[in-house]
Amino acid sequence: MTQSVTQPSCLVMAASRRGVDDPVAKIQGLSHKCLVTLDGQVMLERVLEALVESGCFAKIHVSVDRADILTATPAMQGWVDEGRVVFVQSHGNLADSVLKAVAEIDSPLPMIITTGDNALHTPEIVRDFVRDALASRADAVVGFTREDVVLREYANSGLAFHRLKDGGFSSCNLYALKTPNALKAVKVFEGGGQFGKRHMRILKAFGVWPFIIYKLKLKGLQGLMDAIGRRMKVSVDVSWLDYPWGPIDVDHKHSFDLTEETLIKRRLAAGK
User: Fold this and answer.
1) What's the pTM value of the predicted model, to 2 decimals?
2) Which of 265, 243, 257 is nearest to 172 (CA)?
């Protein structure tokens, strides 16, 4: 595997793991939650649009269970026809899908990973994260937003904030794998990657000492990342992203409504 020094690869995780039983897919009676429409635009199209317009990637690979998902709208069809968006078959859990994608993509590293349900992400947040990721010397980089940044705009976001010695924070579903060594860290997604504040999932994924640090708030976030990294023999950096909506993904009716309200406000503010 070779590494690009200019443009990283990009992988969007968009598989439907609960299908029609997903609470977001149920809202509009669809097979995949990434196909729900938010303020007149399909959610996956919104995610891909932000990535395309960021200018950070030559190609955007989408890990999903069916190739036809990527031709669900004229814009998505156009990106596929241009070779800007590429189908990658999803496999089993998130970890399996990431590792399979790394094996299939030419020059996969460094790789930026995000999800198909962060509909509020913009080209700006993508550029900021990619800048931080490429500047880091760590094996892996994870994007976070601080609790106070979120609360300045969303008093009732519904997010489950993690709290450590340096305050509360939430993940933005932006990850960078920079070196082959970083692939060791992918195994934390074997259980689906949804940790919230579920302590047993955190314990199983990261081990006893990082769990103690987390539970007792013994260190700040970078200190926790360092402890996790030592356990996995992977260096991990934090990218702090100053975007209130950065960690908001569409997982349930409340986040669906909150996301759509925000998108409507953006459109009206832009005079559209």
Assistant:
1) 0.92
2) 243
